[in-house]
Amino acid sequence: MTALNVLGGPLLACSYAPLSGFFRDGCCHTDENDHGTHVVCARISSDFLAYSLARGNDLITPRPQYRFAGLKAGDRWCLCAARWKEALAAGVAPPVHLEATHAKALEIVSLEQLKLHAL
User: Fold this and answer.
1) Distance between CA atoms of 61 and 13, rounded to whole angstroms?
2) Interior CA angle at 113 toward 8 and 45, to 5°?
3) How far apart, in whole angstroms, are the C-alpha atoms of residue 77 and residue 74?
4) DSSP state of 27
5) For residues 88 and 82, what is the distance between their CA atoms, to the nearest angstrom?
6) For 91-106, what is each residue's pLDDT tens digit?
7) Residue pLDDT, tens place only, 23-39
8) What is 74-112 written as a DSSP string?
């Protein structure tokens, strides 16, 4: 079965450079092993990177053992839906690419919240 995005269409790729996704396939695919629910495709901002670092999740430092090159402002990345929601409450939620955000995100954040932050 083809994965769907939050708008009900086919899930589009989020980023191949850097290579994003729980499966590092460029898409915000998920399954039962993805305990972080990495399904929100966002264009990363410096404010979000600083917020995430302060919350204990360093998304800046490269970690080659996890095929992670490190992020910089402007990169697209599949974020954990709960972290995006936290960032929303803190006023630093990065903009979202709706067509590349997995429908599973709607179990954690509303479509209205995502649309208000759409690219």
Assistant:
1) 23
2) 105
3) 9
4) S
5) 10
6) 999 999 999 999 999 9
7) 999 999 999 999 999 99
8) T-EEEEEHHHHHHHHHHT-PPPB-GGGSBGGGGGTS-HH
